[in-house]
# Entry
Amino acid sequence: MQRTIYLFALVIMFTSVTIIAGCQGESKKDTFSEVGQRLSESIKQIDKQPGIVLTGFAADPKEKLFKVGIEFDQSQISSEQLKKIVTDYLSYAASNSSTSTNWGEMLKPYQLRIEKLGDAQKTPVIAVKDIGSTEIKWLLK
# Structure
């Protein structure tokens, strides 16, 4: 009987240590799916802007890549305005995050590509952000 109690106590202690260790190692980062959902739902922020014709969103979990497609009227939106629209969109998406309200930190483990929709023969990719970076490289002139 005493041996059974000892074994039971040992199992309880082992289980407790395992649970505590597992909880401490839990990541505070958002998952790819969570970030993708926030970006997808927030794309409506871009649609509301004057001069925006069409938007789209796609995600590739194998590549850890988010793609945002934007068709815009260049006579109504300058390159600087487009940059602000995109960063405002990313900030809005991050504001709904439970772990980081900074879009750069939220997207740090992922790639981001902003693509021009419509007549994109000349420059289909207008901005990129690589894994590990918190900066967007703009390819617009």
